[in-house]
UniProtKB/TrEMBL annotation:
Underlying gene: thrB
Pathway where it operates: Amino-acid biosynthesis; L-threonine biosynthesis; L-threonine from L-aspartate: step 4/5
Transmembrane domains' residue ranges: none
Gene Ontology MF terms: ATP binding; homoserine kinase activity
Identification of the protein by name: Homoserine kinase
Every Aminoglycoside phosphotransferase domain range: 27-242
Length: 320
């Protein structure tokens, strides 16, 4: 279930009026997703029925939202296949609905794939690189809020729940990433707006060559290589072992580097970035696992999947 906030037809119709997109025909909650309340909303502009996606933000604050929504708007205007948020006459991209910030964005076609192939990986890699280039002139800046500072802050909180040898792994990796962030190799990596959560369930396809990216609500300014590593760690793996699949990996890296060439420095950093990307989601899943159990709300995602991926990447790539 992913409708945490209930709304009425009248309440929504009133909220939609300043967008001037048409009259409300119907709306229905979207079942998947764990962060926000999402609805498909159908409007009639006098000639056509068009369906949009309404998101009510359950956790994100009005201070954090402008970056995500302006990034999506910026990318959509530049032709990157992402949802376009709609503004009212004052240019506001979100306004309160049922006491929480809410936005209306375009609905993209297609569905996610349960079985990524090298062809999917190639189109995702190419589009990710195009997205990185298109984001270079975005004016607004917000760091990846799930970056190194957050890992350091979360380490003690989640360690409390872990057996000693697993807490030791966590401590060791956070320390390795802290040291790596001080190296010239890290400091030379290209930085810009990234999706930072481009998992298989956040990409919709009408065919394997036409991906659209959704769910930008963990986006942030980080190294482009970290964004690519997050993507590789979900798209180019054997899902039971977490091991990298060479054909998927080659397809994604080759397609990405056709648009944004990878440098020798990028290659030197690659192993640590794959480890960083695994660490980021291991920590967030650990946190959600214990927090969600307390709240008894949703089935949490499996943290041991990323513990396994981190161990595998650590055995493959040494600390720099
Ligand atoms: N712009 C869109 N166009 C089409 N479908 C969308 C769009 N936005 C969301 N969806 C649908 O709604 C579902 C849930 O959206 P989303 O993944 O953003 O939820 P969430 O709770 O924010 O995310 P998550 O649990 O992945 O962090 C998606 O899997 C997709 O099916
Ligand atoms: N992609 C994240 C969830 C947040 O979108 C995960 O699989 O842990």
């Amino acid at each position: 279930m992913a409708v945490f906030t209930q709304i009425t037809h009248d309440e929504l119709a009133t909220w939609l009026t300043p967008l001037n997109l048409g009259t409300l025909v119907e709306f229905k909650g979207i079942a998947s997703g764990i962060e926000n309340s999402n609805f498909f909303v159908t409007l009639n502009d006098g000639r056509h029925h068009t369906t949009y996606v309404l998101t009510i933000f359950e956790v994100l604050t009005p201070e954090q939202l402008p970056f995500y929504l302006e990034l999506m708007q910026h990318l959509a205007i530049k032709g990157i296949p992402v949802p376009r948020p709609y503004a009212d006459a004052q240019g506001q991209l979100f306004r309160p609905l049922a006491g929480k910030p809410a936005t209306l964005v375009s609905k993209l076609s297609g569905s996610d794939t349960a079985t990524p192939t090298p062809a999917h990986c190639a189109s995702v890699g190419r589009t990710l690189a195009q997205m990185h280039l298109a984001g270079r002139d975005l004016q607004r800046h917000q760091p990846n809020l799930r970056g190194l500072d957050w890992w350091q802050m979360m380490e003690d909180k989640v360690s409390a729940f872990l057996p000693d040898h697993i807490a030791e792994l966590l401590r060791d990796e956070v320390a390795a990433q802290t040291a790596f962030a001080q190296t010239p190799i890290y400091k030379e990596l290209p930085v810009g707006a990234g999706h930072c959560d481009l998992f298989v369930d956040n990409v919709l396809f009408t065919d394997p060559n036409s991906p659209s990216f959704i769910d930008f609500y963990f986006a942030g300014v980080d190294t482009w290589l970290f964004d690519l590593a997050v993507t590789v760690n979900d798209w180019c793996i054997d899902r039971s072992t977490g091991e990298l699949l060479p054909d998927h990996l080659n397809a994604m890296i080759t397609a990405y580097s056709t648009v944004v060439p990878l440098t020798d420095n990028d290659r030197s950093a690659w192993g640590m970035m794959l480890r960083a990307a695994a660490l980021r989601f291991w920590i967030s899943r650990l946190y959600d696992f214990y927090r969600t159990r307390e709240a008894a709300m949703l089935t949490p995602k499996d943290p041991t999947h990323f513990e396994r991926i981190l161990k595998s990447r650590r055995s493959q790539f040494e600390t720099i």
